Amino acid sequence: MPPKNATFAEKSSLETKLHVVLVSRDERWIRRRLPDPNTSSTMSLLTDFTSNDYLSLSNSSVHAAHAAVEARLADFFHAYPVLLFNSGFDTNVGFFCWVPQPGDVIVYDKYIHASVHDTSQSSRTAKYACFSFVHNSMPGLRRLFLRSRDERVGLRMGESSLFLSVESLYSMDGRFAPSRKTNEAQGGRGCVALLGLEDSVLPRLHIFGKVLAATGGRLLRVRV
């Protein structure tokens, strides 16, 4: 069993699993990376046949501006890295369809956004490892935790991970998730920052759509 005060990386094998996947992609030359906007140049004599960058936008000022926004958001939210997506739905697709691995479990509040319902069913964990609990019900959540632990050896041994997905403020009924003093945000950084839980939450999703009346979503990853 992991020590009581162990970090997230020490409590699960998720980081190891993701590292193995990335190494495998590197070895097969199928891992895509955006070029560094500070060093890339359209004057390169090489031709790119490995990406969908047909218009060479990754080498333009557009990509540089995009990278600058991500860096500014990372500084503001005290999180690294930050990934900027086209929408909140696309953000959830990028996370739930790739990060949870076979053997993992996804647990979410029944009133979570529809994009989580849809994308979690398409994850690597398969639909048989995705469970919902009654809205804001701590007893219901606790029962799911205990049942998942009892039914899955991997969770008990620390070989698998359980992903809990909740919202700070639910658009379905306007209620906050059960937590301390979540009636106001701290400096615009959200309830996770208000409660000082930045280092206890693996990903944080913030959306531009409702708050800034714009398009886009951003995924923040804590330092682990």
Give a verbal description of the structure:
The protein has 224 residues and is α/β, with parallel strands linked by helices. The protein is built from eight helices and six strands, in the order αααβαβαβααβαββ.
Q: What's the multimeric state? A: single chain
CATH architecture heading = 3-Layer(aba) Sandwich
Q: Quick one: CATH class? A: Alpha Beta
Q: Domains counted in the coordinates: how many?
A: 1
Supply the number of helical segments.
Answer: 8
Q: Estimate the helix proportion, in percent.
A: 25-40%
Largest sheet data: 3 strands, antiparallel
CATH superfamily: Type I PLP-dependent aspartate aminotransferase-like (Major domain)
Overall pLDDT metric: 77
Distance between the termini: 19 Å
Query: Per the principal axes of the C-alpha atoms, what is the gross shape?
Result: globular
Helix and strand sequence? HHHEHEHEHHEHEE
How many DSSP E strands?
Answer: 6
Strand content: 5-15%
InterPro entries: AON_synthase_class-II (IPR050087), PyrdxlP-dep_Trfase (IPR015424), PyrdxlP-dep_Trfase_major (IPR015421)
Family: Belongs to the class-II pyridoxal-phosphate-dependent aminotransferase family. BioF subfamily.
Cofactor: pyridoxal 5'-phosphate
GO molecular function: transferase activity
